[in-house]
Structure formats: C-alpha cells, structure tokens
Amino acid sequence: MKPSIILYKALPDDLLQRLETHFTVTRVADLKPETVAQHADAFASAQGLLGSSEKVDSELLAKMPQLRATSTVSVGYDNFDVDALNARKILLMHTPTVLTETVADTIMALVLSSARRVVEVAERVKAGEWTSGIGADWFGIDVHHKTLGIIGMGRIGLALAQRAHFGFGMPILYNARRHHTEAEERFQARYCDLDTLLKESDFVCLVLPLTDETHHLIGKAQFEMMKKSAIFINAGRGPVVDEAALIEALKNGEIHAAGLDVFEQEPLPVDSPLLSLPNVVALPHIGSATHETRYNMAECAVDNLIDALNGKVEKNCVNPQVAS
Ligand code: 8YV
C-alpha cells in the first residue's frame, strides 16, 4: 500500500502525477484548523506533508500522529517549528539550491530599480508626463562601482556578489557568521563587522533567514548608522527588519530609498505607509517567482519528499540527524 500524504500547494500536472505514483495524495487548500478538521482522517493517517508558506507547528503536528516527513517548496523554513519536528523525529526537507540565481537576479532588479527610480519614472511616462523632455527631478543615482554591503553570505549572497563584482564593478563588503573564502577570493569581498558595513555601504542588502537571532536585527540604530544616500534592500525575510523603524528612516531622510521583496506582514496591508513613500520599491515576495525556478522548486520538493519517505536524506534535509 502506498503511503498517504497531504499536499497543500498547487503543483504542475506532471509533478502531481509523479507524486501520485508514490503516494496516495489528499489535496487541501491550506493548513487552517477548519481545513484540518474537515480532512481529519487524511491528516491522521498522513506520513508526508508537502506545500509552502503555511505554519507547521505543534498544534498541527498533534493532528498528524503518523507524520514522518515534511517538504517545503522554499529555501526558508521559519514557518516550521523545527524543535517540535525534531522531538517527533519528523524530517524537514527544503529547496536550497534551485532558486539561488533567480533570487540574486531579483535583488539586482531591486538595486537597479531603487537607484534609477525605474518604477516611479516609468509610471510618469505612462501618466503622460514625458511631454517636453526630462529634468533633474527624473534622475537617479549610479549603481556601478558603488559599495555593496551584503548581510548574510550564503548561496544567494554569493550569487549577488558575483553579479555585483563582475557585472557592475562594485566593491563588496560582507558580514556573516564566518569568513567566506570563495567570496573573498573570487569577488574580492571584504569581511567586516555589521556596524562598519552599515556605515560604509552605498547599498545595504539583507539576505538573511529569519531566526531568533536575526529578528529585528536592523532597526533604528542601524538605519542611523547608514549613509543618508544609502539604499536598503531586503530580500530575505521581513521580520529581520523593524519595519516601523524603516518607515521612519525613509520618511526622515536617514536613508535614501528602499527596495523590498519581503515584509513583516504579508501580503503587505494596503494601508502600509510603505506604499505611499515615493522612495520605496515594494515587490510581492517574488524573489524566486519565475516559471522556470518555481517549477524547479516544486520538482525538488516532490523528489525531496519521495527521498525522505524512503530514508534518503543526503541532500536538502534541514534535520538529517533525526533520520532513523
Ligand atoms: C518562496 C522564499 O517564494 O524560498 C523561500 O524561502 O521565500 C520563496 O522562494 C516562498 O517561500 C513561497 O514558496
């Protein structure tokens, strides 16, 4: 008999078929308590769980006594209670490599659109304002050869450093838990403490996961350290930044502009002050959202679940130590 799993994300047809050759699949829209209650038997017998973004906590796990593996269609897993999974020896699989290059592209898009005011200026053209040429009020600031500060030198930080170094001739500063030889040797990235990075960078790019240590790492004091001309980019997780402090910094001219793909609350509330600031480019958490990469992430998550439920945890497993 095939093991049962719960699928809480839409998948391309071929990947759904692949999943169905290995498992009996129950598809649900989300993991809300009412959904779980409605499919109580399926949750009670499921050995696997596949989807993204929803909270997987001890309350949900209590409804899934047979669960052996979870697979998220994302690199980030801050929505999972990893301690609770570990206590039950449930594997957590994620998709760390397939989205790296695409997210780095998105970060460069945020850097360029914030500095050159691409969105704002394009809107002015559409509004018919380009009637008799443009003046200095349409100008942006240069990106090439400016100093890029990268907070978090993981896979995405490295792909960003590559683009900035070879494509834009940008000197790179970085802060991370440890020195990164590849970043230093290939892209001449210079390791520095966080304060130095904030003070010396023209672009401050945050590519950190959300953990207890990174929550509100960047707040009022950090924005005050940045150059008044600095552009702040966040493509990691929203709560790494104290968003109220960011809004104040943007309003008070502590920093020049921000390019944001992630927010403390998502979707971003329509009354967020960020939406009325002209010096903000706000994207709807689309770092990895290309057809190719989202397919590759979904495929990776499907294969990860098949592997995990067959005891294969050599790659893409957050907690291989719980494998029996
Ligand atoms: C996904 C992400 O957009 O992988 C991540 O951690 O933030 C994004 O790539 C998101 O998790 C939805 O799948």
TrEMBL record:
Homodimer. The lineage of its organism: Bacteria, Pseudomonadati, Pseudomonadota, Gammaproteobacteria, Enterobacterales. The active site is at R237, E266, H285. Its EC number is 1.1.1.79, 1.1.1.81. PANTHER family: 2-HYDROXYACID DEHYDROGENASE-RELATED, GLYOXYLATE_HYDROXYPYRUVATE REDUCTASE B. The keyword NAD applies. NCBIfam families: PRK15409.1. It is found in: Cytoplasm. Keywords: Cytoplasm, NAD, NADP, Oxidoreductase. Gene3D superfamilies: NAD(P)-binding Rossmann-like Domain. This is Glyoxylate/hydroxypyruvate reductase B. Residues 5-319 form the D-isomer specific 2-hydroxyacid dehydrogenase catalytic domain. Residues 108-287 form the D-isomer specific 2-hydroxyacid dehydrogenase NAD-binding domain. The gene is ghrB. Catalyzes the NADPH-dependent reduction of glyoxylate and hydroxypyruvate into glycolate and glycerate, respectively. It comes from the Bacteria. Signal peptide: none annotated. It is an enzyme of class 1 (oxidoreductase). It catalyses: glycolate + NADP(+) = glyoxylate + NADPH + H(+); (R)-glycerate + NAD(+) = 3-hydroxypyruvate + NADH + H(+); (R)-glycerate + NADP(+) = 3-hydroxypyruvate + NADPH + H(+).
